[in-house]
Amino acid sequence: MDGVVGAFLGVLAIGVFFIICLVMYWIGTYNKLVGLRQNVEESWSAVETELRRRYDLIPNLVETVKGYASHEKETLESVVQARNSGMKSLNSPAEAELANKDFSLALGRLLSITEAYPQLQANDNFKNLQRELSDTETNISRARRFYNANVKDLNTAVEMFPSNIVANHSGFTKRVYFGIDNPDAFEAPKLSFSAGSDEGVKIKLKETEKTE
Description:
Largest sheet: none
Number of domains: 1
Radius of gyration: 26 Å
Distance between the termini: 65 Å
Oligomer: single chain
CATH class: Mainly Alpha
Helix content: over 70%
Number of helices: 6
CATH architecture: Up-down Bundle
């Protein structure tokens, strides 16, 4: 009889130990997923800040160009419209990707036509705006890579076994990458500057940077 009781208590102890380990794993995995999700949200806020900063530069850029190329009305209006659409899309990476494609094309056309206006190229305000845009594009690229790295970590935890069990039962879902499916949408024209050039600031389009 004592042997049976001892065996039962042994099995019970193992069961309790297993349940405790399972609960501890569940809590640990849940907290990890919460942290990963928080990292994604915080890194997207950084991307959003840089996108907003870039869009905020556009009204001044358009007004400066208008002073020298007012007859380029269609190009100027397309940039303003694309900028306004972009501002409305900042809450969603998926929407931001679609809006940014149109913005990049419109901005590229605007920067291209400015090469035909030497006086505009020599304008100090125009040069400063170009430099600010260039710096912002660099910041966007860095923030995008950081955001995508955090999305990868979260999506991996959501998909992999056994953490996917905790994720599925706790409401954690995969997040959308920023610019992975369409990298060109996030390669807005990059401005390069030729020091000491008599022609002022030269503009070229940034080569597509592929994100793995």
